[in-house]
Hints:
Elements: H1 10-63
Amino acid sequence: MKRTKNEEGYALLLVLFLVVLISILGAVFMRASISNAKQEQITDRNQLTYVAAETGVDYVKTFSPTSTTTRRM
């Protein structure tokens, strides 16, 4: 099998390029995954805050001696 001089190292460069490309893609997907996880934590915290506030309002409406639902103006 005869090789020409300009083909030497071609496979090495191709493999090196593929390794770099796969590494970059992996880093991009990892960053997106971490960003998504942080956003989910913020959304969960906001939802919990909203539910806690609604529960407090319901508690006051239920156990308040002068309920605003029975008052007439």
